[in-house]
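protien #1 (seq + structre)
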Amino acid sequence: MDTLIRRGRESDLPALRDILNHYILHTVVTFEMVELSLENRKTWFTQFREKGRYQLMVAEKSGATIGYAASLRFHQRPAYGPSVMTSIYIHPEYLGQGVGEQVYSSLLDNLKNEQEVHRAYGLVVLPNQGSVRLHEKLGFQAVGLLHEGGYKFGKYHDVRIYEHRLEK
């Protein structure tokens, strides 16, 4: 069955929480350190809209939510408003099957239609060849490196900054 890409809904939150918690507990691809609760995800979900800067797209296969891509606030200071941070997580069983490209492309296409969004940024903890390839394939360019920018599992990790120029 094909993958369906659609807007996120509150009923997706348990699956999205479980996907992200896997990465929190077992990998360094996120610098979250503590498992997230359903209440946390409900609060997180309130920022998303069908239009505007902050959007949530999910991937669904055979009725199951298997991943998401989201645009989030980049920085607290108002001048950063036209910039968004992107986030993508796919259920580990579906990695390498094109799901990430589908859901991330959908998010980026939506953002390109938003006048109030100028740039999208993604942070990739290194090494992570899959995420590097995905960002570059979708038109992101590496614009910086945070040397030992995060500390998780007893080790420092470099973080590459990717920028997507959302040309209108």
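ok now protien #2
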Amino acid sequence: MKVQIQIRGRKYTVRSDEEGEDLVAIAKYVDSKMAEIAGRGSSADEYTVAMLAALNIASEFDRFRRQVASDLSGLDRELASTAVLLEAALGDSAQPS
């Protein structure tokens, strides 16, 4: 699928397997990150702004990835604990005769 996006005033036609609306939303997010960095008053060129935005987005992603991993680990522990409690409560009645 071809989708037209705009980042920093430049239009791009992108071919992707992503849904068009999703890709447009992602492009808007990247554009907003770049605008935020460019608006900090530095006179960085567009390449530097893009690299700093990429680093910021990658940092956000890494924090999110680690939080999800931590949450899943906690859920695994809770599930194992619940399974032990359930087995103890059911005792031998859960065993086939």
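The beta strands are 2-7, 10-15.
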